[in-house]
């Protein structure tokens, strides 16, 4: 499974590609940050972000895109920028028919460190260890993007089984009502 992780942000949008399957060693295929100038017009920043993400999709051809789910913060301006960047990532993937999964920050932290309250340094250290890297990816947005991809690889099989079970239950329940 090849996953592009996206840590959305308007100024720095972390991106990382990881390949592998749950229970086996994972491989980092690329990591970086798509940057936009803070003083540019919002529309131009969103277009620049789209172009950057499209380049990553073209180069790495992921099967899935994992995006950090936007959560409420105290700074509304930060939340808006994060939500807008997240929407661009969703749009780019959906336009290509690539499934998108949203993962909460605590879900990602728990997946890679064992604790949903881990700090950025702990996440970076575990990403470095799990991907057998020489040093933690910089900036933290890049490490977070890799953590999102790892989280998705490890959690996707369980999520797929759960979705199949719900669909099967729904089908049986519906069949019982129509009979």
UniProtKB/TrEMBL annotation:
Mg(2+) 1 binds at residues 7, 141. Its EC number is 3.1.21.10. The active site is at 7, 68, 141. Binds 2 Mg(2+) ion per subunit. Keywords: Cytoplasm, DNA damage, DNA recombination, DNA repair, DNA-binding, Endonuclease, Hydrolase, Magnesium, Metal-binding, Nuclease. Its cofactor is Mg(2+). Belongs to the RuvC family. This is Crossover junction endodeoxyribonuclease RuvC. It comes from Streptomyces prasinosporus.
